[in-house]
Design goal:
CATH architecture: Alpha-Beta Barrel
Number of domains: 1
Order of helices and strands: EEEHEHEEEEEHEHHHEHEHEHEHH
Oligomer: single chain
Number of helices: 11
Helix content: 25-40%
CATH topology: TIM Barrel
Length: 362
């Protein structure tokens, strides 16, 4: 008989998809797409297949358009070459009996003119430059000054999200996660520190949530709600702040619940930093949402098991531990030591620090 402390390793239904455990591989930007087409390659397929024992893999953030790109060598989800590259990834994961969702991404103002067509300014809800960095072939640089999107441009961005979802479906993904967190475009619209608009997409909470919900509704035309999740970050990331995040995310999550989404993926606290960076009641969001609650940020084995055992989370996403531990599920189940990651090989490069981390059995 399974003991209560093993609930993290028990199967669970996520929408209509059966997961063998509640451990999720979080999205991890590694900047290893092809340099010409921003498409996944055989090396990427090997990397994801190595980690297929996760209950669910969420792909690295994947731009929906050229305008949506914010970092060098991140993969896209809008061209035939990118679709075929991702098809190789999903086939490799499925061959290992894994499950994988694509995370769809538009970075908004967290970009640089060098990454935009014809050196154009990045776009944002308002022309406010973020205090942040991006990664180019030359290294880390300050993000560029953005321009404010015109209202008539927003239906085109919604259409780009839908097109990316269609490409993801053709590429064989089991579902999609909308990246609405970390100070990227949708999060920029949600938060009043980055959204100073005076039209129907700015001002009151309902207006600031409008773009996010339009995108969700467009994605639901491609994938059923049981195969759609969304990532949210109430705390400030990439300089996107809000004066009342509890009210903002309470409203948004209620609307998402009404649409029947499979899960909400919450970054609790500061990404990669303090979990108490914001006084926020995450339990209220779980209570308000009809689907699964996926917890993320700095979870250890003990924390993850306690969160699931106590009903505070249905799933727990692990990020950095998955970089150096392709067999993280097996290591956590055995309470085995975790390999440390090598900081120097996080972004860009080849197999070193990417597919050469050994499994425990080795």
């Amino acid at each position: 008989m399974t003991s209560p402390t093993e609930s993290l390793f028990r199967p669970v239904m996520l929408g209509d998809l059966r997961l063998p455990n509640r451990i999720v591989m979080a999205p991890l930007t590694r900047n290893r797409a092809s340099h010409d087409a921003e498409a996944p390659q055989a090396l990427n397929a090997e990397y994801y297949a190595q980690r297929a024992s996760a209950g669910l893999i969420i792909s690295e953030a994947t731009q929906i358009s050229r305008q949506g790109q914010g970092y060098a060598w991140t993969p896209g989800m809008f061209t035939p070459a990118q679709r075929e590259g991702w098809r190789g990834v999903t086939a490799a994961v499925h061959a290992k009996a894994g499950r994988i969702f694509a995370q769809l991404w538009h970075v908004g103002r967290i970009s640089h003119v060098a990454l935009q067509d014809n050196g154009a300014a990045p776009v944002a809800p308002s022309a406010i430059q973020a205090k942040g960095k991006t990664f180019l072939s030359s290294g880390f640089v300050d993000v560029s000054m953005p321009r404010a999107l015109e209202a008539h441009e927003l239906p085109g961005i919604v259409a780009d999200y839908r097109h990316a979802a269609e490409v993801a479906k053709e590429a064989g993904f089991d579902g999609i996660e909308l990246h609405a967190a970390n100070g990227y475009l949708i999060d920029q619209f949600l938060k009043d520190g980055s959204n100073r608009r005076r039209d129907e997409f700015g001002g009151p909470i309902e207006n600031r949530c409008r773009l996010a919900l339009l995108v969700v509704d467009a994605l639901l035309q491609v994938f059923p709600a049981t195969r759609l999740g969304i990532r949210l970050s109430p705390a400030t990331v990439n300089d996107a702040t809000d004066s009342n995040p509890q009210a903002l995310f309470g409203y948004l999550v209620a609307e998402l619940s009404r649409r029947g989404l499979a899960y909400i993926h919450l970054i609790e606290g500061q990404t990669g930093g303090a979990r108490d960076a914001l006084a926020f009641d995450y339990a209220a969001l779980k209570q308000a949402f009809s689907g699964a609650y996926m917890a993320n940020n700095g979870y250890t084995r003990a924390m993850a098991m306690a969160a699931v055992d106590e009903g505070r989370a249905d799933l727990v996403a692990f990020g950095r531990p998955y970089i150096a531990n392709p067999d993280l599920v097996e290591r956590l189940a055995a309470n085995a030591p975790l390999s440390p990651l090598v900081q120097a090989t996080l972004y860009g490069g080849g197999a070193e620090g990417y597919t050469d981390y050994p499994a425990l059995a080795a």
